[in-house]
User: What shape does this take?
Amino acid sequence: MKKLLMSLLIVLTLFGCQDNIQSSLPALQGLKNGDFTWRSSASTVVVAADGTLTFTGSDGYGTMTLQIPTVALGTFPLGENTTALVTYSEDEFSYSTNNNGNASIVYVSDGAIIIDELNTVTGTVTGTFYFNAYTADGERVMNFSEGVIYKLPVTEGTL
Assistant: This one.
């Protein structure tokens, strides 16, 4: 009986130590406000006629749009008076990297969208992003860090 109990304990220990890894291919996700992993369940990538590259994703609660002025590799800074833009809408609030915050110390929107790979063969885009965005009145902030754009397929236009 003692051997059976010990064997059962060993078997349960071995099978209980499995990794539970979720595959996110393709992916648009980021760490929202430092404590919540936001993952888009539906996303689009549009290359407009003027060359603008726009990523849009939604998790069913919030919608994020990342826009860069050209289809190119590199770092595109975010903030007031820049050509790249991020907006995020959730509930009745809309945040933008074109808005700055209001406080006793002025808080500015900032961040970057980094495009690491433009695969013309598969029609996919890979990169990273991070940003601080504010509501139009500057009273609320939305922060995303550790943002990932992983092999998102172009849904409209071509690379």
